[in-house]
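Protocol step 4 of 6: structure prediction from sequence.
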Amino acid sequence: MSTSALRQPASKRDRIDPITTSVIQGALENIAIEMGYKLMRMSYSSIIRESEDFGAALVDAEGRGLAESAQSTPLQSGPIPGYVRGVQKILAARGDVFRPGDVVMHNDAYSGASHGPDVAFIVPVFVQGRLIGFAATTAHHLDIGALSPGSCGIVEAIDAYAEGLQFKAIKVYDRGVRNDMVWQIVRDNIRASDLVVGDMDAQVAAARIGAERMAELVERYGLDTFDLACTALMDHSERLMRQAIAKLPDGVYRAETAIDGYLDSDDPSKKELPIVVTITKKDDSLTVDLTGTAPQVPDRPINMPLEGTADIAIWLTIRSILLDTAVHGHIPVNAGLIRPITIVAPKGCLANPTFPAPTIARFCPGNQLADTVMKALAQAMPGNVSAGIGNLKVIAFSGLNNETHWVHMEIFEGSYGGRLGKDGMDAVDTLYANTRNNPIEDIETHLPLRVLRYELREDVAGAGKWRGGLGSVREFAFLSDGGASVEGEGHRYRPWGFLGGAEGMPAKLDLVAGGKTRALPSKVPHMNIAKDGRFVCYGPAGGGYGNPLERDPAKVADDVLDGVISIRTAKRDYGVVISAKGVVNAKATAKLRADR
């Protein structure tokens, strides 16, 4: 779509001063942040309250993003404009419109949503009878009524209908009147309904707060001033992005990685699937072409919605690399940032599936897409990227307490690769994930689970001048009969090393039951696990950045003393000879490195 149609004439844009524009920008951002904190504090489940797997944003009447909550995950806040546009199209097709007092629930992965469990609640904002925008929240819910408990680890869904309830622009409040029957359908068709509906009520309340604040802001400055400020803000963000792109050399930058898929499948079309990114830079714009990416898997849910997952992975990665806040300071996040970027994705590929291909397990493939975009841009901006990231997994623990389900979603963190001047970050969510680790105390307080181990995984980081980050180890024990399913990645392929750095280490997962240990693949359908059964999760280690023989021997010694690597690894990978007391033998090290 041409960006010219989204802009007002220069004569109108120039009538607002930059101070007023900045004040309105700050107000919009603070409203979104307030929405996010209100949602966190009102929520029932740990995935929102502790992991912060939610989003909050303000959108204009045309479906263009104005501001998003900085403390939430980009994969939740980023798609919200797409949710709004999807709802607008559906309502228009029905001959319906937004009215004051409406609240719309939406989770259609083929109409802007990221995937089914990420349900949005959208509140229209009216001022003087005119629709001027929307306040919306999204959140990952513990259950959405799929074939097995939880809303992740649904790795056997054969189509969109097997993934749970589909809410396509449903008015749960119509002109202020609550639609009790819709809420009853939700309660009757999901597990852990008190938690899930409680979280949904929190979303509605937070979105309403945002709508009230947005209306107050517009009434304070007037509709004309607000419109001009929003246009100026988007134009400013567009200029920042175009200026950053213009500094790159014109050219074509290509990268390829792969996802596990279903490693235990006999069908080659379901495993070891390539993700290909070709970025063409010309003047001040980028085209990101995903041609060459594997075809969609029509009966397994690892496909990525183009709008809601694939686009967010691409936009976020480009923004992070080109407009790093550590270098450029605060960057206003709105629709202007994406105007210079065009995405090409062949219909029917993993990153642009056709309905009803299932998408509920799109999280890890999308994160791998982001990693591939970074790998491509590393050729143009080597100092602004990390080496390969260690991908994540999500485990859905569940069980029955009498007739009531309990469900817990464990987002098991990965790690970053090494960066210019810095080692990779250990045991964190990566790229577009950005959720927080679940505290052990919260898990053990509310659930029949015990965390027997939580520690860094030793002697696995990708070697480099700046080493990769470490994954973690978590061991979960069931205190009563229950079950679990797993949605993950990174068991087959190692995170890539960069500029001479070594590859990282894949993840692994073990089930210990009945005195036996069994290795599991990265995707595990729901399985029953008896009391005292244990899940042992090993996180992947990121790739190394730069030649390991150039790493400061003192840093290698520190890693040995910290238990990060062994004395043997220090010698083998870094050419550093260290005594049993952790002291560097400078002479032996110099000789060994010279011989290498």
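Step 5 (inspection) to follow. The chain is about 30% helix and 25% strand.
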